[in-house]
Amino acid sequence: MARIDGKVALVTGGGGGIGRATAKRLADEGAAVVVTDLRAAEAGATAEEIGGNALALAQDVRDEADWRRVIADVQARHSRLDILVNNAGILATENSQNVENTEMSQWRAVQAVNVDGVYLGCRHGVEAMKQSGGAIVNLSSVAGLIGTPHLFAYGASKGAVRQLTKSVAVYCARAGYGIRCNSVHPGLIDTDMGTQVMGLDGADVEANKAARRQMVPVGELGVAEHVANCILFLASDEAAYVTGAELVVDGGLTAI
């Protein structure tokens, strides 16, 4: 039997990278998947690749009205929501961010997507699931666990997601909603965003990847499917006793 057969899943930022891999993995295991992205065409490409009853919707996760619309569309189509993956996130820079050179506009742009978007997702996801229960998985990062002096705004946003997740988990548990909320913390993953990080300040991307491989104990960069598999576990009933947890997917990087 598929591990999440019959469940309805919403994946934000599903147009590429970890979001696309997650949407496909959840569909493979039996979920009816709704894929959203600010880039409607990319969301549509993911849904088309999945096939079946997959649905693509344009969504700006910073916009509360968009959250209301998307949740209403999901409920109108499926009558329920069981799994929410708050994956949408941005780096929003071509240069290193540090405490001295991060402008307020850049700081706010990163927090708006990475923190406000997750807050709104949790708020409206809890409202949609509190009668029937469900699972929320928030994408944080190893940048939310360790210092990131050259990814200042991004690291702060991912630290906020880590703490927000725990607060939502405890609130829902004590309220008796049957909603679990956990965070996933990818390390060096070979995606478009990972490549963007490797190329900050005009760095040689391939040389940077080679150097980063040497930093990771397993000796390789991760791929999106590694993260998607962990999200699947947290979304499934196999993780029924797991809430408020942080699952690190980094090849041992933060164990050093």
Write up this protein.
The protein is α/β, with parallel strands linked by helices and 256 residues long. The chain has one domain: 3-Layer(aba) Sandwich (Rossmann fold), CATH 3.40.50.720. It is 46% helix and 14% strand. It is built from eight helices and seven strands, in the order βαβαβαβαβαβαααβ. A seven-stranded parallel β-sheet has the order 3-2-1-4-5-6-7, with helices on both faces. Helix 1 (17-28) runs parallel beside helix 2. The radius of gyration is 17 Å and the shape is globular.
Overview features:
46% helix, 7-stranded parallel β-sheet, 256 residues, single chain, Rossmann fold, globular
Topology:
Layout: E1 8-11, H1 17-28, E2 32-37, H2 40-50, E3 55-58, H3 64-78, E4 83-86, H4 104-129, E5 134-139, H5 152-175, E6 179-186, H6 192-198, H7 205-215, H8 224-235, E7 246-249
Parallel strand pairs: 1-2, 1-4, 2-3, 4-5, 5-6, 6-7
